[in-house]
Amino acid sequence: MFSRRNFLQLSTAAIAMGAVSKASLAAIPEIVSTDKPDTQPLLLPETGRPYQPVTTLNGWSLPWRMNADVKEFHLVAEPVKREMAPGMVAHLWGYNGQSPGPTIEVVEGDRVRIFVTNRLPEVTSVHWHGQRLPNGMDGVSGLTQSPIQPGKTYVYEFEAKRAGTFMYHPHADEMTQMAMGMMGFWVTHPKNPNTMKVDRDFVFLLNSYDIDPGSYVPRTNTMLDFNLWTFNSRVFPGIAPFVAKKGDRVRIRIGNLTMTNHPIHLHGHEFQVAGTDGGWIPKSARWPEVTTDIAVGQMRAIEFIADAPGDWAFHCHKSHHTMNAMGHDVPNMIGVSQDGIAEQFSKLVPDYMSMGETGMAEMSDMAEMMPMPLPENTLPMMTGKGQFGAINMGGMFTLLKVRDNIAKNSNADPGHYQQPKGSQAYELAGGDNEKLPEVVKEPQIKSVQPTVEFNVRKPNMTPNKSHEHMEH
Ligand SMILES: [Cu+2]
């Protein structure tokens, strides 16, 4: 269970006693674990150098202990249960009770020691993506170290040399272990907490799963045709919103550990790509964007001023990635009457899903109104309720919620945005289809003859004003 308090008290007490002898601490740090899929409160540092902590979307940061001048963490690779959204639980592999694993936060220059215990049924290792470290700490099984056998604990130790955005994941049977959800975020804060300062700093990983409707365990051999596109192993409407106070400088750090690229799009604001896994981008080299593509294995830190109050969509712009479990090879059924065919088919083929007669939007309502026989542990393809109806989204979709009053360091959901009167798209009175003017076929372009003035000059009379000017 989550015993951060005891853990920190232990380390604070140890610091207060002055020099910590190794004997006064257990050889291996205690294991801190959580089974909660919600965004946990910020882990404010009580020991070590100060920094402004990050918010892990639907996740948490791993507490540490100070052992002399070394920050010690304990990661446990193990099978976990992850609620992907209310109504669906996946049986994954992860770290310390969840997938993704907890975020590791350290400060530039920290000496870091990470104990990694393997409670998986096969070997593993941990690669610290993007870090400057001794070759033997790079975590590539077979290349830089022996694999960690089930039941064994390895120790990694290095200095967090470069401030920035990193991730960790296995480098042993990678295809299986990443498809099962083994990954986590790492942030190295700058030594000077006033550099690169933002008011809100969010982190999450892009991941994807292929879980057959009605089942719990991902297919690990899938290469591209995943059916769950996730932010930190969550799908909309299970993904927490980004919450910001109007005027806050916001940073969102995103890492991609799926098998394809994701163009991440923010509504209502422009942002700059301020950093990658290779470091921070000089201010003079940044450019404005509203969508940035994040390739496989890349990390991007985007920054913007949240100056527009509202509930703004934030999502992958590949429309198939904002849907939950579905078949991508369903035929286009727009205009085809299906009177009850879907229900009949789904009795024969449990995961059968057809496209709606008028498009797909009707599916979201159907899921609610009609007892469409969804297999157990399966989410509707697109779902999520807004204050004006179905949002028709799933997968890699969430909201940026900007409000006038949000407490510092609070990520509490402020509810629906109340749009000021007169600032909302509205239905036109008298705009009913049958009342519209007739369609104009082959629009007649009325030719209006403009009055054209010609200035005729002889070639030796230069029309160049500046030239004329020069002659005077
Ligand atoms: Cu995508």
Specify the CATH class of the largest domain.
Mainly Beta
Query: Mind telling me the CATH superfamily name of the largest domain?
Result: Cupredoxins -  blue copper proteins
Give the total of beta strands: 24
Instruction: Please name the CATH architecture of the largest domain.
Output: Sandwich
The largest β sheet comes out as:
8 strands, mixed
Q: Calculate Rg over CA atoms.
A: 28 Å
**Which ligands accompany this protein?**
copper (II) ion
Architecture overview:
With 472 residues, the protein is mainly β. The chain has two domains: 4-203, Cupredoxins -  blue copper proteins (Immunoglobulin-like, Sandwich); 249-403, Immunoglobulin-like. It is 9% helix and 30% strand. It contains five helices and 24 strands. Strands 1, 11, 12, 14, 16, 17, 18 and 20 form an eight-stranded mixed beta sheet that branches. Strands 2, 3, 4, 6 and 8 form a five-stranded mixed beta sheet that branches. It has a five-stranded mixed beta sheet with strand order 13-24-21-15-19, with no helix packed on it. The longest helix is centred in the N-terminal third of the chain and has 13 residues, at 4-16. The radius of gyration is 28 Å and the shape is globular. The relative contact order is 0.11. The model is unreliable at 1-22 and 462-472 (pLDDT under 50). Copper (II) ion (CU) is lined by residues 229, 262, 316, 318, 321, 396.
